[in-house]
Each structure stands twice: as structure tokens, then as C-alpha cells.
Amino acid sequence: MKKLVMILGIIGIIVVALIGVVMKLGEAQKNDMKALRYEVIDMSKVENGDYEGIAETTLVKVTVMVTVFDHQITDIVINRHDNGKGQPAEIIVQNMIEQNNWEVDGVSGATTSSNVIKSAVSNALSKGIK
What we know:
Layout: H1 2-35, E1 49-56, E2 61-69, E3 72-82, H2 92-99, H3 111-126
Antiparallel strand pairs: 1-2, 2-3
GO molecular function: FMN binding
Transmembrane segments: 6-26
Pfam family, one: FMN_bind
């Protein structure tokens, strides 16, 4: 009986610790989302070239390469996208190319990844302004 009580006590401690870790990660992720930067981009001022952009939060990390030609976004390659279930968000880069703007609607169910991708693309485009 003592062993059972000890085992249940250890399991209880582990569960409480895991809940604490999950809550801490959630809070850090929430703060990181608020801190994401989005640049105001006038595409008429972005020069031809390839520009790398990076954005990250506690749980999502994105690196992109954005190609601009004649003030148009011609390609966006996601070189890194560490995510949970956010891979569906990667389709937004096609909308960015079509609209020639990073400010597009996010993907439902992948809001965090959508926002981190948008931040990375805006970061990349800001490097092309001369």
C-alpha cells in the first residue's frame, strides 16, 4: 500500500510539473506573438534582389528567402519552419506573391505560423529598401 501511495504521489508531482511547463510555454508564446515586428513596406522602394527574413517565437521559427524583381515579389521560399501543426500556413506565401504584399489573411487553424511567416517576409522586404 505504501508503494502505491508513493507511486501515485510521484505521478501527481510529474503531472503538476508538466502542467506548469505547458502554462509557462503558453505564456512565453503569447508574449512572443505580441512582440513580432511587421514592417510597413512600400514595394516601389524595394530594389531587385534576394532577401532573407527571420522571425521566431517560443514555439515557431521561420526563415524565408524573398525574391523581388521590378518591385514585385516573384518568389518566397520558406527555408525553415519549425512548427507544431502550422505547416498549412505555408500556403500564404502564394497569396503574398499574388498580392505583392506580406499583409494577407492568415490560415485558419494555423494563426501563429501565419503571423510568424508574415513577420519574416516583412523583415526580408525591409532589407531591400534603399
